[in-house]
Fold each of these.
Amino acid sequence: MRVGLNATCFNGRPSGAKQRFLGLYGELFKIMPDTQFIIFEPRDYSFKFHFHNFQNVKCIKTILPSEGRIKKALLGFLFWPIFLRLQKLDILEGFNLPSISHPNVYTFHTIHDVRSTNNNFSGWEYFIALPLHRRSIHRVNHIITVSHSMKKEIQNLDVSTPITVIYNGISDSYSDDFKNEDILKVKEKFNINDNFFLSVGHFEKRKNYLNLIKTMKLLKDDGFNIPLFIIGNDNGEKKAVLDLVEEFDLIGQVFILSHLSNLEVKVFYSLASLFIFPSLYEGFGIPILEAMSSKTPIVMSDLEVFKELTNEKYVYFDPHDVSSMVEKIKFVLNNPKVTETFRDFGSKRVNDFTFDGLAVQLKSLYDQVKESNHLQ
C-alpha cells in the first residue's frame, strides 16, 4: 500500500500541527513497516532529517511554498492533478486547505480547527473561509479531527463526510528530556524565581492575552506580585500586549518571551507554579498536555474542548470576564490541596495522549480503508 502525505503546509516554524505530524506519523511509520509512505514536502523545508532512519518513508520535494495561501492555491491547482497521477497512490492525506483529492485515491483530510469560519477571529476572511471549508470537506472521503468538540463544529458546517477523532499527542518522555544542569542554565538566563505563572501560545487575538494582562493588573492591586512569563511568537498581537503591559506598569512583573528552544519551554513548564490558559477559541490545546506531563497545575478557560481534555477535573474561568479570571486564579493559589489534585490527575490523564497509542488508532483507520478497498 502506498500512502501520500501532503506536508507542504509545514516549515521550520514550530506549531501544534507540525508537532502532531512529527510525533504521530513517526510512530505510525514504525508500526506499518510494509506500507510505503511518501511525504510531499514544500520547496522550502525538508523532513529527511526527521525520518531518515525509516526505510518505508520517502520524501519528495514539490514546487509549492509552505506559506502564501493564494500563491500556493494557484500553484496547487496546476500542480496536483498531474503530480498525483504519476504517484500511483492508494491513500492520500492532507493537512491544509484547500484540500486535494484524486478520483482513484482514497483521501483523508486532517482538521485542527475551523476558526476562520468564526468571524470573531477571521474578519473579512470569513466570507471566503466558510464556502472553502465546506467545499474542501465535501470533496474528500474522510475527515480526521483532533477532538470531539471540534467534530461537532465541523458537523455544524452541514457535513455528511465521515469524521474520526484522533487526539493530538505528546511524547511519553516530554518532561524527562532535560537535566538539572539545563534547569540551572534556564533559570540563570531568564532570571527565574521559584514562584511564577506561565502561559504559552503565539500572540494572536484568540489567545486572549490582553485580558490576561488586565487580570495580572488586578492581582497586583490585590497584593499578588507573582511574575508572569508568556512564551510565544508574534502572530499580530504582540505589540498590543507589550503596550498594555507598559500602560499598567507591569514591566518587571510580566515578561514576554519569543523564539525559545523546545528544551527551554519544557523547563519553564517544569518550574511554573501555575499554568494559565486563557484562550477564547481552540480546536485542541496542546499546552494542556505539556502542563499535565510536567505536573504543573492549570487554570483555564471554560471551553468545551478544555473540559473534554481534562475530564472537567480542573478549575475554569470565563475568558471574557476578567473578574472571573482573577477569582479562579486566587482560588487555586489559596488552596494547595487543589493544586496537588491537579498534579496527580494530570500525570495520569496525559497517558491517554501518547503518540504510540494514537498511532494504533490511526493504523486501524488505514487498515479499514485497506480492507474495504481491497488494497495490497
Amino acid sequence: MTNVLIINGPNLNLLGSREPEIYGTTTLEELDAFCVEWGRQLDFEVSTFQSNHEGEIVDKIHDAAGAAGAAGIIINAGALTHYSYAIYDALVAVGLPTIEVHISDIHGREEWRSKSVIQPACLAQISGLGLEGYRKALEVLAEH
C-alpha cells in the first residue's frame, strides 16, 4: 500500500465545536477515520497528524520524506496557510506531491484568507468542499 500523510494545522483539533456554521459538526477524530477509509478504497495507507505548532508541522513534513516514506501529503495548514513560508519551504524541500485542502471557501471569506503562501508548492488546492475536499484530495493523489 502507498503511504499518504494528512496534516491538519492550528485549531483543526476543535473541529465539531469551532464555528460549526463554517466547519460543520464532524470532529477531527471522525474526519481522520473517514480519511483512513477513503484512502483504503484507493489502496492508500493514510496516517494523520494535527498540530497547533508550526515547527511540529515542518518536522512532520520532513519526516514524511524520510523514514515515514510517504508518497504524498494532504495539508490543511489552517491559518498558517496565509503566512507560513516555513511550511512552503518544507514542502518544496521534500518534493512530495502535495494537495492543499480547506474546508471552507478561503476565496469567499475575509480578504486575508484568500492568499495562500503554500499553494505554489502544491499540485492542487481544494477549497470549499467541506470534508469532501479531503476525499477529493486523495483522489487527486491517486490520479497523480
Amino acid sequence: MLAEARAAAEGAGRKRLVILSANPTRGRIIRAGRYFVHGQPLDETVFADDPAHPRTSAEVTELLGGDLTGVETPDAETAAELARLAATIDRDTLPVGAVEFFSALLQARTPPREVPPLASTTAEAVGTLVVCGSAASWAQRCTEAADRQIPVFARPHDLAAVARALQSSGRVLLGIGDGGGLTSAALCAELATATATLVQDSTGVTAILLEGGATARAVMDRLGWTRLQACQVSAQGVGVLRPAGAAGPLLFIKPGSYPWPPEIWP
C-alpha cells in the first residue's frame, strides 16, 4: 500500500499523505499506533494465520513498512474522530484508507441529503450466486446458508449440479471448502474459473455476491471485465456494480473478513 500511495501522491502533486484504515463501526480501530479488531491486537486475530498475508504485528508502522517520512498514520477509534480527521484533508493532501474514512470525507465535503435505499435485495433476485473465497468466513457462510436453505457447493465444484441447484432454488453458495491443501492463489483461480463458467454458460446468474478482494479481482479478470459501473447505494460498505457496457449480472462486493449485511445476504 505504501509504495502505491506515495506514487499516487507524487503523481497528483500532493505534499501530504494520510493513511487511515480504521472502520470503527466494524470494530477496526487504531489506538496508540496499533491496529485492533474487536479489542484484539491484529496479530492475535485470525489474520495472523492468513495463508497469503499473515499479520505478525499490530503496529501500523510495521504493517505499512518502508520509509514513513512525511506520512501520517493517525489514531481513530470513533466515527467522530474520523470526521475530525476528514476535516483536515485539503487540496495538498492525499487521503488513503478504509471505507469509513472516505465516507467521512464525503460527508465533510457535500451537503446532507437523503440516501435512497437499495432498490432491491438479493433475496428478491432469481439466480443469485454467493461466492466465498475467504477460508476464515467459510464455516459461518455455510451455517448461514443452511439457515436459509441455500444449497452449498465446496470444491471440487460439480458445475452441472450447481447449475441445477441455481435453476431450482434461485441461489447457491459456492466456495473453497477446506482448501484441499492447495495454495491460496490456486484456490482463488479455481473458484474464479467455476464462477466464470457458470456466468458464461447462461445458467441464469443475475446477481453475484463476491466475498474477498482477491476473489472479486480473479472473477472479473477471468470474465474479462475491465470496467465497472456503480449502480446503487448499499449498506455498510458493500459495493453494488455492473460490468460497464455489458449485460452482465449485478455485483455485490465486500472484504472477506466482514459479514454480509442482512439486507444483502439472500
